[in-house]
Amino acid sequence: MPNVVVDLSSLRELDEYSMPGEPSLVVEIVGAYLEESEVDSKNLRDAVASGDWAKLGNAAHRLKGSSANVGVKTVVELCAALEKDAKRGPVANANARVNAILEALAASCVILERERAAAEQRG
Known about the structure:
Elements: H1 9-15, H2 25-50, H3 53-69, H4 73-87, H5 94-122
């Protein structure tokens, strides 16, 4: 598993605003992120396979934004760099860079899943 940075403080703060008897905001937000990240992962892979740099930049931008919302800092940093390079045209080592993003994403999702399970237990 790659070394990733996930800042859970924002999610934990949100959990304080969950209403008794209502689903935890953390459970909902993390669940949405996990679903959306599957689509984003596919878009990154498809863009690299087709050599569509604009699509690659857009996919990196989208994943960067959603990752920032849940504190997945490593993915944010990797996507920001990829997005910047994709705007310039052909991306050197695009396949390897997307694979690095996907590995960091997978490791981050394990951490988020644990946080979601903990929020469910608290809820």
